[in-house]
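User: Here's a structure from my thesis project, written as structure tokens. My advisor, Dr. K., wants to see whether a designed sequence matches the one we expressed. Can you design one independently, without my sequence as a hint?
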């Protein structure tokens, strides 16, 4: 069995990465009250920084403080500089806190506070995506629904003009922006969430739970009335029943923000991963289900058909995930059907 021999370029890249991580840790030590001694001696300090509960707790607490997000905020400056280091491992560390940054930022925008620190971090992520996409939209080819199945597609179907191809746009092309204006805010934050989603499989569970909690705040609606038997009850009650249930328990809660589709779409993708991801976590599934209920109540309140369809689908998935038996294997034969000879 052959072994891969590290080259000189690999060693140089590793040294450069370690140097950037050490510089980031040194700068962070001047912001936080304490850093675990084992962090610097870890074989992968960036990964340790990403998952260390003590550090993430301190950073999360600082990001949630009333004066956080200002232009002279040291933590925001550290997050900005760390992401600009262009080290992939440090990128993950910054992305881990995007749910809190986006959540606190969007919740405080209406208060007209100075949030230049948060905006600098979000613009850094937006600029990174703008450069990496090179002006191209994110698209995906979908099967021709006029055929019985994908196996019935002929080679001629691949020779169609570009206007006739079955292409779905996942994210439109990006334009460079150096400032955050009210008309651009949803798109810039949405792109930051798209970048978070692209790395979500590497994000700790705590980061995803933070995101679900802020989704409830953003929705501004209490969705508890859809917790038990919501599908059957709503179908039977109809529109009048929905309005009545909103009066009983679906009132607005503090923190409601506008949810245009360019912001809501990446939100729903992240929630979909939280519900259907490979890493099964009951606390995360419950948090994502609660967030979906709030967003479903919000979509009904706003009478948004696209959002209603998407959130209702996620609610069904969440209900199945919570009721599923993890030990069930559909390939196993029931013991009652076994014949003993």
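Assistant: Designed independently from the structure alone:
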């Amino acid at each position: 069995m052959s072994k891969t021999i590290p080259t000189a370029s690999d060693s140089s890249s590793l040294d450069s990465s370690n140097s950037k991580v050490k510089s980031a840790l040194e700068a962070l030590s001047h912001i936080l009250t304490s850093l675990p001694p084992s962090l610097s001696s870890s074989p992968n300090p960036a990964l340790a920084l990403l998952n260390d509960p003590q550090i993430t707790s301190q950073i999360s607490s600082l990001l949630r403080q009333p004066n956080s997000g200002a232009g002279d905020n040291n933590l925001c400056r550290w997050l900005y500089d760390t992401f600009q280091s262009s080290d992939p491992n440090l990128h993950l560390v910054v992305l881990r806190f995007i749910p809190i940054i986006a959540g606190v930022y969007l919740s405080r925008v209406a208060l007209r506070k100075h949030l230049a620190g948060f905006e600098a971090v979000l613009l850094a992520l937006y600029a990174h995506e703008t450069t990496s996409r090179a002006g191209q939209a994110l698209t995906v080819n979908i099967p021709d629904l006029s055929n019985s199945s994908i196996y019935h597609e002929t080679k001629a179907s691949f020779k169609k003009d570009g206007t006739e191809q079955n292409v779905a746009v996942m994210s439109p092309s990006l334009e460079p922006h150096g400032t955050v204006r009210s008309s651009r805010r949803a798109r810039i934050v949405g792109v930051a969430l798209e970048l978070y989603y692209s790395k979500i499989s590497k994000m700790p569970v705590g980061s995803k739970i933070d995101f679900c909690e802020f989704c409830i705040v953003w929705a501004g609606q209490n969705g508890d009335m859809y917790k038990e038997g919501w599908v059957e009850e709503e179908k039977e009650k109809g529109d009048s029943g929905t309005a009545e249930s909103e009066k009983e328990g679906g009132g607005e809660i503090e923190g409601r923000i506008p949810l245009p589709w360019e912001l809501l779409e990446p939100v729903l993708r992240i929630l979909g991963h939280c519900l259907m991801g490979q890493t099964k976590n009951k606390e995360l599934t419950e948090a994502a289900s609660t967030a979906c209920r709030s967003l479903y109540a919000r979509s009904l309140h706003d009478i948004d058909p696209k959002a209603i369809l998407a959130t209702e689908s996620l609610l069904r998935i969440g209900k199945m995930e919570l009721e599923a038996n993890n030990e069930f294997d559909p390939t196993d034969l029931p013991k009652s059907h076994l014949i003993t000879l």
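When you compare it with your expressed construct, this may help: The two ends are 48 Å apart (CA to CA).
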